[in-house]
Amino acid sequence: MFLRLSKAVLFMLGVFFFMSFFYDFINVPPKPLKNKPFQARDLPKNETSVQWKPSIGEALSSTAQISSPQISNLKKFREKMILLRRSYIHLDNETLQELKEGQINEIRNTLAQELQEVANLWLQNASANPRKVLILTTWRSGSTFFGELLNQFPGSYYFFEPLIEQHVQRAATNSTQMDILEHLFNCNYQDIRYSKESKWILRHNSRLMPICKKTLGFKEEDLCLDSDFLSKVCALFPIRLMKTVRLETRNVEDLMKKLPGLKVISLIRDPRGIVASRERMPWCSRPQCSDVQHVCERYNRDVESSFEFRSKFSERFMVVRYEDMSLNLYRTVQRVSEFLDFSLSEKIISYIQNHTNLPQFRARKGHDMSLKHSHGTFRNTKSHTFEWRSTIKSEALNQTQQLCASGMNRMGYKLVPSIGVLHNPNIKLMDQIY
Fold first, then answer.
1. Cα 372 to Cα 361: distance, rounded to the nearest angstrom
2. SS3 of residue 135 by DSSP
3. What is the rounded CA–CA span in Å between residue 16 and residue 22?
4. What is the pLDDT of residues 354-369, one digit of tens each?
5. If pLDDT is split at 50, 70 and 90, which confidence band does 430 have?
6. Which helix (H) or strand (E) holds 178?
7. Strand ranges for 8-52 from DSSP E
8. Topology (CATH) of 94-384
9. What is the distance, to the nearest Å, from the Cα of residue 150 to the centroid of all Cα atoms in its chain?
10. Which residues are registered as beta bridge partners of 156?
11. pLDDT at position 316 over 60
């Protein structure tokens, strides 16, 4: 028994000393070496360049230059490897420009093939006068699905939530939301700087990301966050589509005046469904998102402004009810297509079938979880629409109906006297005003 205990103690001591040595090995700051590899600080300061970390193969070829005397000296070898991990390879401007142009030409050719399948001649000749479309809505209103649906129109360049402030660094302190949207609609990325955390935003652009993900020596964030590259790619597309939940409808009038060709779609959902859905979202803890009073104050303003602008800009402003889209998706897509003067393509019809046909996408491996994903684009739309009727709490129901009453009446949503009536599936909750 004593022998076993002694072996265990010796084993633990050995593990402790090994971990201590390993920790020191990877954390000792490197000392300057005479024959050090390439470093970012060694590059000319007045030269614009793109840099990235070397590949495994490049790292191995660099380590082969380390001599035997250096390898015998553990400390120097450790410093050499740390410097190697922090080293960069420099790409001159001429090579970088050639690389960008090659990728832009590839996107141009892919886009041409995509547009050949469309009968709408406007799309094929619209680079000089691109169509600009803005989807306005609020959190938990079905905008991720709706935006991705419109992104299926051939020739679309999709801006997904461009006003997420923690990921967008404003070039000037006086920049406003309108400035950012105007710059992006005009494909001017020079004044818009995305951070590396923005990759998931750009990933919604299905025509851009295949190029960015290629192993060109660039990392994904290097190419996709390059303002010059993004500006040139964006300018190729005849449709510039944007959706945001961070802009109130009342503030869009100035943007419509600055961009005469801009068309706006206001997507509005029953506020009771919004409140019930947000209660389940852990990220929705701020009062602006979770507090019913805040929700209804903005909801009533958005509804009022939507009706005002629909009357004022009858050919440029459209209101879509989330429930109408869910219950009659094909009809809603037809209405939206007519409003935008777009032709329905096989790609859109296929997207609708693949993303709303429950047995079809349940049969796909790994897609069962997407049914419950909070920002997923797979939907059994009819059953998902009124799922909140069985989950909303009585207090939230009463408060929402009281504070959002004006907006609900304008949108044709019916109030219910109690939670028991709400649970009756035979009770209709909206008028057929559309």
1. 13
2. strand
3. 10
4. 877 644 434 443 433 3
5. very high
6. helix 177-185
7. 50-52
8. Rossmann fold (3.40.50)
9. 14
10. 239
11. yes
Q: Could you tell me the sign of the dihedral formed by the alpha carbons of 237, 240, 241, 242, in that order? A: positive
Cα 157–chain centre separation: 13
Q: Which is higher by pLDDT, 215 or 135?
A: 135
Lowest mean pLDDT among 87-91, 354-358, 405-409: 87-91
- Beta-bridge mates of residue 194: 168
Q: Taking Cα atoms as reference points, which of 139, 143, 140 lies closest to residue 325?
A: 143
CA torsion 224-228-231-233 (nearest 10°) is: -60
**Half-sphere exposure of residue 134: CA atoms within 13 angstroms, side-chain side:** 27
CATH 3.40.50, the chain: domain bounds: 94-384
The residue assigned the tokens 């209660």 is 279
* Range picked from 60-74, 167-181, 345-359 for highest mean pLDDT: 345-359
What is the pLDDT, as a whole number, of residue 164?
A: 78
Residue 46: φ, ψ to 5°: -90, 10
Comparing 151-165, 194-208, 361-375, the range with the smallest average pLDDT is: 361-375
199: tokens are 């990759």
The answer to whether 83 and 36 have CB atoms below 8 angstroms apart is yes
Q: Are strands 239-244 and 89-91 parallel, antiparallel or unpaired?
A: unpaired
Give the single-character DSSP code of 251. G
DSSP state of 198: G
